[in-house]
Amino acid sequence: MPKLFGLNVLAVLVASVAFWFVGFLWYGIIFSDAWMAAHSVTPEAAQNESPVWMVGGFVITVMQVVGIGLVLKWKGVTGLVNSKITAAILWLVFALPFTCYNYLYLTAHDSTLLMIDASHLLVGWVASAAILSLMKA
User: What pLDDT, on the 0 to 100 scale, is given for residue 38?
Assistant: First the structure.
């Protein structure tokens, strides 16, 4: 199996697609109305958005999955539970603080948006770590 930074490429791709699917669920189905309202985006404007941005979003997702995979590998984390715990800790010390920047510095200080964005990353990171663990990335 080909490797990317020593990680199983198939595992990285499967975990990335799963994470991206979490984003689809979060922003496209479960929280779409709340997210669009928080950003003052109309459904018409959302439909007219270029799909090119989705490609960029997938690249960012792959980068996150590679990062999670590298940490799991470097720390020698094995097992499903330990991988998910490690991803949750990484989220707590990296993703959540980065997500809080918008909450603190945008004038709206929208806690709904913070919760949607932060929970998307938490679920995505934990799901990615679980898949990487199960596929022995």
Answer: 86
